[in-house]
Amino acid sequence: MTAEKRIPVMEIFGPTVQGEGMVIGRKTMFVRTAGCDYSCAWCDSSFTWDGSGKDDIKLMTACEVLEELKRVGGDTFAHVTLSGGNPALLRHLGELVRLLREQGIGTAVETQGSRWQDWLLEIDEVTLSPKPPSSGMTTDWDMLDDIVERLQSNGNGFSLKIVVFDEDDFDYAVKVHRRYPDVPLYVQSGNSNLNERDNQKLLSLSMAAYERLVERTMASTELRDVRVLPQLHTWLWGNKRGV
Amino acid sequence: MTAEKRIPVMEIFGPTVQGEGMVIGRKTMFVRTAGCDYSCAWCDSSFTWDGSGKDDIKLMTACEVLEELKRVGGDTFAHVTLSGGNPALLRHLGELVRLLREQGIGTAVETQGSRWQDWLLEIDEVTLSPKPPSSGMTTDWDMLDDIVERLQSNGNGFSLKIVVFDEDDFDYAVKVHRRYPDVPLYVQSGNSNLNERDNQKLLSLSMAAYERLVERTMASTELRDVRVLPQLHTWLWGNKRGV
């Protein structure tokens, strides 16, 4: 196998519970890939793209990833989440997706909707999470339109998720919902306290942020058919990595 | 309309977030009906069946319920949760289900799987929550088999949810999963502290119970393809009613 076909893997861990979006609560393993085309101001996994984690990156074949998943998770799992960074940068991730499928293992992915890969059609639960203004990123709406259309006609599980930190982000969520009214929408309260090591304090802050988002959403006549969720794993484990 | 066609309604409130199971996070209105064929030891809505709430019961037609939903929720909602008590005791709830559907309003119901009603086929998300040993109730497996079979062949959203308080309950969840391996299963940590009025204390206890259930589930080679969730509304609002 050539070097290009290897996957840049940052970490493999689990089983744990999925903390976000359409797969919330799901027992899953995580494969976190390195590299991102975005650099969100509040990214909670910036070690995947800012150079700080570059010594942890392993270039692995799909088979090696599967072996490592089995070594770490043993016989306890039936689902794998591909996260990043942006996994949709990696064309050859399709090999891993197919390998997992052959083993009867379900797959979920989260990506911002800035790149298309054909293997997205083979994922059981795709979360598209275009980034709101507070991220500092700019949405390529033509690209997002194209990706939404492809996923909608596919029939697998598919949803949009917007992380909300402030009023502008909330308006962005409304805009996304207007543009794609038939796609299930999840709004999620953002974690502004990535450096908070006091879990009790972080929990209070996160819960207050979630309550504000709940109130705002409940009052909205535009966001009627939506789900509002926190980051469950942050409530449980704070800003710790690898859980 | 005859008196028998009226629905015994305990409370109507919302919009709020659904705190549990397959509809977790969903923006929804609640219609809580009175009356239950069970009397679970730890029921968090025992006022629906133990007589303590009988003065609050209103006998309402389906149209009156819809009017009240609109009066309370205004133009902010597109989803209604039917809860109890056990709503599946009420044959005439079907009228309300159809009325909501005609208005383009989605519906969810939670019931223990002890009674069948044809209108269950018209609900968008049915949660069957058979009760584990700690409830003090006995499962009628033949009845549950029948209900699961009808819902499985229907194609709408449908899941099983088991509340877990102790080891026996966990074993019960495993038994249910073995019996219905193809039905999405949610395990949920139970709230043993129904009289706790200190929300901070309740949150710590609830979170510890959820963590224990997460740990137990992660280690299980039988519960591989499951979701583990807390009661999100209890974390937010404690034991308060009507939120």
From TrEMBL, chains A, B:
Binds 1 [4Fe-4S] cluster. The cluster is coordinated with 3 cysteines and an exchangeable S-adenosyl-L-methionine. This is 7-carboxy-7-deazaguanine synthase. Catalyzes the complex heterocyclic radical-mediated conversion of 6-carboxy-5,6,7,8-tetrahydropterin (CPH4) to 7-carboxy-7-deazaguanine (CDG), a step common to the biosynthetic pathways of all 7-deazapurine-containing compounds. PROSITE patterns: RADICAL_SAM. Residues 23-239 form the Radical SAM core domain. Keywords: 4Fe-4S, Iron, Iron-sulfur, Lyase, Magnesium, Metal-binding, Queuosine biosynthesis, S-adenosyl-L-methionine. NCBIfam families: Bsubt_queE (TIGR03365). S-adenosyl-L-methionine binds at W42, C43, D44, G85, S129, P130, K131. PANTHER family: 7-CARBOXY-7-DEAZAGUANINE SYNTHASE (PTHR42836:SF1). Substrate binds at V17, Q18, G19, R32, S83. Homodimer. It catalyses: 6-carboxy-5,6,7,8-tetrahydropterin + H(+) = 7-carboxy-7-carbaguanine + NH4(+). SUPFAM superfamilies: Radical SAM enzymes. [4Fe-4S] cluster binds at C36, C40, C43.
